[in-house]
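sorry to bug you again but im stuck and you know this stuff better than me. what follows is a protein written twice so to speak, once as letters and once as structure tokens for the fold. mainly i need to know what kind of three dimensional shape the backbone takes. anything you notice is useful, everything is just below:
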Amino acid sequence: MTLRLFTVDSFTREPFAGNPAGVCILESPADDHWMQAVSAEMKHSETAYLVSRGPAAFDLRWFTPKVEVDLCGHATLASAHVLWNEYGIPRTGTIRFHTKSGVLTCSLAGDRIEMDFPAKPAIEAPPPPDLARILGVTPRFVGKNQFDYLVEVESEDVVRRASPDFSALRRLPVRGVIVTAPSGNQEHDFVSRFFAPGAGIDEDPVTGSAHCCLAPFWAARLGKREMVGFQASERGGTVWVRLTGDRVVLGGHAVTVWSGELRTG
């Protein structure tokens, strides 16, 4: 038996940029150990697994090469892209994903995919010991939400020059650490990077779920509900955000890089 498997670059218009995600459409729920093994084989920061619930509704789970995660933006965007472009889901409607973080929806706004996600605001928190040394930056603000630490620094240049001690970061009791600053150009409102060695990802190229924290953080500081964020990893990617109450609409583009067959037996 074979299954179709895709790699999609998310939060980019061009291949080999943004964040690559695996997407696997299953005929029925799969064994957790099998999904984890496939994700380790794929070596993307996340691989998404979907099972149909009916017209334009799917169960969705995400696995890094090491663990299952509760929320993932770029692999959700990749999943919607595959369903619209490869499986004939009507492009005029909304796709509903049933996940560990509740029901997430995706719809098209022009050529951009928009995802309705829960906001995950950070509350100011004492920094872990030696955080400045571990990240190689001087924090202006440290907060914490359900998943991650959020660290604001002085400038975009500081974000780009951050050189974390990944072995030390791996020991922190969180999924990861977001480092952010105001953008240094007029194209973006803020920039960020995301480090999650404890989840098997030293640096994630573009992190949709981190923007569920970044959107309320920068909305409060900039007095704006709609903003554009740039994740300044080596690959880089752009995320449009719109804060609507306790939800964040994340927008981005995606491109399929390859598709193939996964042998299951």
